[in-house]
Amino acid sequence: NVRLVGGHSRCAGRVEVLHRGQWGTVCDDYWDLADAAVVCRELDCGEPVDALSGAHFGPGSGPIWMSCVACAGSESTLKSCASSGWRKSYCGHSKDAGVICSEVRLVGGSRCSGRLEILHNQTWMSVCDAAFDQQDAEVVCRELDCGAPVQVLGAAAFGKGDTQMWTQEIQCKGNESQIHLCPTSLSYKHNCSYVHNIALLCTEIIHVRLVGGHSRCAGRVEVLHRGQWGTVCGDGWDLADAAVVCRELDCGEPVDALSDAHFGLGSEPFWMKHAKCAGSESALKKCGSMYSIYHDKCLEKNAEVICSEVRLVGGSRCSGRLEILHNQTWMSVCGAAFDQQAAEVVCRELDCGAPVQVLGAAAFDKEDTQMWTQEIQCRGNESQIHLCPSSPSCQNTCSHENYVKLMCSGSMRVRLVDGNNSCAGRVEVLHRGQWGTVCDVFWDLADAAVVCRELDCGEPVDALGGAHFGPGSGPIWTNRKLCTGSESTLKNCGAVEWGPFHCDHTKDAGVICS
């Protein structure tokens, strides 16, 4: 039901979909790597290399069947992805979407390690070790967005497999973007068995970084794609997106998602525009994104993140053994180096209310982390623990029996105000110690369901707008919530600034729960 037309092979070209017996194209609005991944999977063509727009492979003809495609990336077919509906498009063929798939894969290991297989004449084939060298390995690892080759193994380290054997000699220079662009020698006659097929180990590189901040855990978001670092547009950037970045970088919890050039403006290319993370993804590249029609917004607004660099381990979100990130290493904190003021900063930074108890004994599971022994000297009003001064002179001898465990109140991060009870009213969200409202643009029952669930207030009865419960005051934290209805908390929903809407407190959202 899908094909690629106009490229060098069946795994690269303009995307066309078969619907009601007729082939038609796909509009490039919101077209991204998550959509391309579904096409490559459906065609058994390996990993997505690029998602292209602007009729890169030439304009098609006939109907434009799909537009505003929004794949999660895990679907088995393109037709299973959400879209604006069949033939509901204002696109012309100058906006036909395209895809390039890798036609190479690593099998039996991880995404970046395994037995090498190349797609040839619609058949996946193992590669003979005598036909492959270091330059070829560099091309494969780069094509799969896996950095540089660590090791090329001749023995079948990841299983023999039952594929046919590719015996032509591959002659890459090492700078090609894809392995199929490398010449091959038709005269190669080596007698190769499965014990000689290639296994390849590439470096599983991080594809995101934060630039311009005080540490690697704060700054402007940049993404690595096809060997080049590019910027992420700040249009629609929210805490769900920031959570994915902090997780990928092992930097703790998201403290803030910014888009006001706080860390300076980046430059093109913009690899992602309008990221649409659910918040649970392991990497930013696994999130979908939407094409932004407001290109000027991207020039003015870059995505930025501040991560906590502190976490509580072994308990719940708001209780556990305290660990601080120092020089890229998570370290436990000595009880003698930590006091009530420091506890107040940590709980507030993690959006967990106030500290209930600071304990020196290891009430949570012991770990073999290194020990932070410098004395932390917070006043208690700092926004993050790393902003507190520390004393390098603290020489307390500290064992794992003496590290800090912290219990915060875990305060509710959403409330309903000015209704007739605690389960009805204007929606307010707690962020960085301050209550603010939510805009009613596209506010619906799915959003209301999450609020009612978080407050243990039963089912949603109504989702109200127009400041039904009176206007709030202070910040308006989000301009649009994007809940599916299954999230456990409102903060787990995405949120975007949507088009030309400008909210004020006359548009505060409200909820009535059952």
TrEMBL record:
<feature type="domain" description="SRCR">
    <location>
        <begin position="2"/>
        <end position="102"/>
    </location>
</feature>
<keyword id="KW-1015">Disulfide bond</keyword>
<dbReference type="InterPro" id="IPR036772">
    <property type="entry name" value="SRCR-like_dom_sf"/>
</dbReference>
<feature type="domain" description="SRCR">
    <location>
        <begin position="414"/>
        <end position="514"/>
    </location>
</feature>
<keyword id="KW-0732">Signal</keyword>
<feature type="disulfide bond">
    <location>
        <begin position="347"/>
        <end position="408"/>
    </location>
</feature>
<feature type="disulfide bond">
    <location>
        <begin position="128"/>
        <end position="192"/>
    </location>
</feature>
<feature type="disulfide bond">
    <location>
        <begin position="334"/>
        <end position="398"/>
    </location>
</feature>
<keyword id="KW-0677">Repeat</keyword>
<feature type="disulfide bond">
    <location>
        <begin position="27"/>
        <end position="91"/>
    </location>
</feature>
<feature type="disulfide bond">
    <location>
        <begin position="452"/>
        <end position="513"/>
    </location>
</feature>
<feature type="domain" description="SRCR">
    <location>
        <begin position="208"/>
        <end position="308"/>
    </location>
</feature>
<feature type="disulfide bond">
    <location>
        <begin position="40"/>
        <end position="101"/>
    </location>
</feature>
<feature type="disulfide bond">
    <location>
        <begin position="246"/>
        <end position="307"/>
    </location>
</feature>
<feature type="disulfide bond">
    <location>
        <begin position="141"/>
        <end position="202"/>
    </location>
</feature>
<feature type="domain" description="SRCR">
    <location>
        <begin position="310"/>
        <end position="409"/>
    </location>
</feature>
<feature type="disulfide bond">
    <location>
        <begin position="483"/>
        <end position="493"/>
    </location>
</feature>
<dbReference type="InterPro" id="IPR001190">
    <property type="entry name" value="SRCR"/>
</dbReference>
<feature type="domain" description="SRCR">
    <location>
        <begin position="104"/>
        <end position="203"/>
    </location>
</feature>
<feature type="disulfide bond">
    <location>
        <begin position="172"/>
        <end position="182"/>
    </location>
</feature>
<feature type="disulfide bond">
    <location>
        <begin position="378"/>
        <end position="388"/>
    </location>
</feature>
<dbReference type="Pfam" id="PF00530">
    <property type="entry name" value="SRCR"/>
</dbReference>
<feature type="disulfide bond">
    <location>
        <begin position="277"/>
        <end position="287"/>
    </location>
</feature>
<feature type="disulfide bond">
    <location>
        <begin position="439"/>
        <end position="503"/>
    </location>
</feature>
<feature type="disulfide bond">
    <location>
        <begin position="71"/>
        <end position="81"/>
    </location>
</feature>
<protein>
    <recommendedName>
        <fullName>SRCR domain-containing protein</fullName>
    </recommendedName>
</protein>
